[in-house]
Amino acid sequence: MSMINPHKLGVHKILKHVPLNAIFDAPSKRRLAKAVNIADLRLCAKQRAHKMVFDYLDAGSDDEISLRRGKDAYSEIEMHYHILAGLKPPLNMKTKIFGCDVDLPFFACPTAGNRMFHHEGETAAAKAAEHHGSLYGLSSLATTGIAEIAAIHNGPKVFQLYVWKDRELVKEVLAKAKEGGFNALALTVDFTWYGNRERDIRNDFSIPPKYSVAQVVEAIRKPAWTYDFLSHDAYTYACINTDVPADSLAAFVNSQIAPEFDWHDAEWLLGEWNGPAAVKGVVRPDDAVKAVETGFSTMWVSNHGARQLDTSPATIDVLPSIREAVGPDVEIIMDGGVQRGTDICKALALGADSVGIGKPYLYGLAAGGTDGVIKAIDILKVELDRAMGLLGVGSVDDLKKRGPGLVKRRGASARDYPDRNAYERGYGGGVI
Hints:
Layout (H helix, E strand, L loop, with lengths): L10 H5 L5 H14 L3 H11 L2 H8 L6 H8 L4 E3 L15 E3 L2 E3 L3 E3 L12 H12 L3 E4 L6 H7 L4 E5 L5 H13 L4 E5 L9 H6 L9 H9 L1 H8 L15 H11 L6 H11 L3 E6 L2 H10 L3 E4 L13 H12 L4 E5 L5 H9 L4 E4 L1 H33 L4 H7 L4 E3 L23
Parallel strand pairs: 4-11, 5-6, 6-7, 7-8, 8-9, 9-10, 10-11
Antiparallel strand pairs: 1-12, 2-3
């Protein structure tokens, strides 16, 4: 028997007519306006969101070694810039992703359950992508439907799919994605087991909340998030079944993950999709070669945001070897650890055709909805433009061509890594 909660009692139907959101969100908006980088957005998100929601977003698995390493690895890559390059702004950041023209070489990755962070959810990220002319990625565990996203974002879109057992479900979801104008498919292959996210365990994380004393006290401390949550409809996993609430569907989703999914199943999936497709979760050159042979058009170098296998490698570290393995003509997307425009610049220089961001835009979403996501992308866009200009490259294509001669790896230094205050600047890990 499911627990009675405010949404089942219809509290949201009353509160939605009581316009207090603007009052509760006023401090959050002021903080958002003052944010100057992604680390600032992270702190804005932490101050607005319920602790269990923020930690769900912020955390990695186990001891969070991969989470820290994913950020630290960029510090070991130096940018050896050219002088007197004769560049004139604006620089050209246009490129192609999945064969489609976009205005930026980075984009919002598909991530699950965005309405958990703010009632605008995936629509906020889709609006920001439309605003910036960038690719948008929608998760199959999104809390906003495919048709709703298609009505907001007219540009190229990628639909992310997990390794489901039920092939009829897969066919149904793929048909919806095609009908919704999604250009490409991304198969997530590093989620065959659920990662050990100990912050979630400590916080007794659940969907919906369990309304324990600790959770209620924290909700009172975070009135902007709490009123936002209580004054809007309970969310569903809208790409699968809009009639079933997320809490009821969670067990179904868990039962659908197929650890036995293999390369033969991937071949079947590619045949069903019959279009541009990425394999998401590649960290080994031999797997990348196998994926190309299987028929994937795009390698998506990712370790699931360091949320699955702890001590898995930093994606920026394995990127060059994967580029070497598949050659110059296979498209590569990379995500993981990106906090700065310089990180994006380094990834493009080392072999990525484009870069996905997850936590940065979700911090913006949790901090301030659409405005927060737009600001997150704005911050990274300005930082990338500055990095390219100072490096001496006038376009993304130029950066990709000349990249290997512009960045060099050096040995690690103790000065690269977090000091005792670094957690508050955006380094997660092991903090109770």
